[in-house]
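Lab channel / #folding
Pinned by the channel admin:
"Please post every new chain as: sequence first, then the structure tokens as a reply. Keep commentary short and put observations after the output so the thread stays searchable."

First post following the new format, from NK:
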Amino acid sequence: MRNKKGGIFTNLNEARLLLDRYNNDLATLYSELKNNVVIQKIKELNGTEEVLSNTKSFVEIYTKIVELINNINKLSSEINKANNEIECMPGVTIQNALSSLKSLRTLRSNLSAIYTCNSFKQRKSDVNGSSYYLIQELNFDKEWLQKEINRISEEIDKYEAAILKANNEAQIEF
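Reply from TO:
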């Protein structure tokens, strides 16, 4: 939807999708620009020329790239501004929630890896023929750790739901 100034209003999810599309278009244009750097011709001895490659205007493609970069920068700025201003939960901006999500996911991943550790008792022998047991015991309670992983997962779900809701409801103009 357009406003009176010609700008477009959209929610943050749609803005991110548009930003992805812009970035894909930019990659395509860069490739197109590289493919149109030179024009190959054959020039006969009698002076006639034949163009071997059908190329587009380098300047035309470059102009599209600059315009697209400006649109990407403007849209990125609006998304970042909204992320820093819009609260997804009381006292928590979208950006704060995204930062918390990253930390919580890292914590959950590390705790999940630790959870896979097990205690063991292994019989060993040394060069003198004496035997002993190598014992490895966990330095944590597995039940407690599983509950902690579940609690963190619930907190992650809460943040993700709040961010999704805020992204769908928040309108930005660009």
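NK: The chain has two domains: 1-85, 88-169.
TO: also worth noting, Residues 1-6 have pLDDT under 50 and may be disordered.
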